[in-house]
Amino acid sequence: MAEISAATVVKLRKLSGQGMMDCKQALTEANGDMDQAMQILRKKGLATLAKRAERETSEGRVISKLTDDGKTGVLITLCSETDFVAKSDDFVAVTDKLADYALACPDDQSREAILATEVNGQSLNDLITELVSKTGEKTQLGDYARFKLTGSGLIAIYVHFNRKVGTMLQIETSDDKVAVSQALKTIANDIAMHITATKPLALDKDGIDADTIEKEKAIYADQVKDKPAEMVGKIVEGKMKKFFAENCLIEQPFVKDDKKSVKQVLDEAAKSAGGTAVIKRFVRFAVG
Question: How many Cβ atoms sit within 10 Å of the Cβ of residue 190?
């Protein structure tokens, strides 16, 4: 039987939100396999699906920027080993420059491309190397996304005041008049804040992979296996409906008015501006 380290138990506790003893028991039953232990907790009804944005990261900061015309936006994380370094003047100075590198990067969004991008004759890779020499701590580029509008629409960005989590959202509109309306700008910013708070898995059902859906169905079926056979299917269907409402952005109850879905409040804002709007994509990055 695999030895279960305290660090592994703590990691599962962070993912599941459950007590140390429950996590240790699940890991013991799973012979140390983290994914299997999470499934065991979920079958017991002790944990919800771990959000992809909550994967383990180092310390660091979330950085964002929009071009002056609002047509290109970037969201990036710069990661360090400790929060002490992430709050240092040298680290903050580099993060202040990081968004300029990301915006200057060509449309190729590979990590290699942004690290090789030069601003004022200096590459981002060189800038980070200099930072490491000052702090003596490993520092690296974390998550990176660059959105660029190709038609009517807008990009909204929200970064929490602690700089540990942020969201970038792209909305397509029926025309430019809708895109520049104050009603849509306001709701777009509110939805970005909503995503930061609720951590949706995907935009809609199509964005959740089939394997995840089948695993969810299996877990729910296991939870009600003692029920009459004719009831199991209906119960699982109901639980899956709730699963999609909790994890698909457009179906989620809007945080500022939980009697309406995110899609409903977006549709209302666009209609008030004389057109339509749809969410094309979003990213949510977190550190720490």
Answer: 20
Query: What integer pLDDT is reported at residue 39 of this predicted model?
Result: 83
- Three-state DSSP class for residue 36: helix
Which homologous superfamily is 1-47 in?
Answer: Ubiquitin-associated (UBA) domain (1.10.8.10)
What pLDDT, on a 0 to 100 scale, did the predictor assign at position 1? 58
Query: In the chain, where does the domain assigned CATH 3.30.479.20 lie?
Result: 59-201+275-286
Count Cα atoms within 13 angstroms, Cβ side, for 161.
Answer: 0
254: Cβ contacts below 8 Å, ≥ 6 apart: 190, 191, 194, 260, 261, 262, 264, 265
pLDDT of residue 17: 76
**For residue 26, what are the contacts with CB-CB under 8 A and spacing of at least 6?**
12, 37, 38, 40, 41
Token pair listed for 186: 């306001």
How many Å apart are CA 175 and CA 165, to the nearest integer? Answer: 31
CA distance 90 to 80: 12
What are the per-10-residue average pLDDT scores of the chain (288 residues)?
Answer: 80 81 88 86 71 59 94 94 91 92 81 88 91 88 92 96 95 96 97 96 92 88 86 89 93 95 97 97 92
> Could you tell me which of 138, 128, 154, 151 has the C-alpha nearest to residue 67?
154
173 bridge partner residues: 277
Closest CA to 15 of 60, 52, 44: 52
For 59-201+275-286, CATH number out of 2.60.120.10, 3.40.50.2000, 3.30.479.20, 1.10.340.30 equals 3.30.479.20
Predicted local confidence at residue 54, as pLDDT: 44
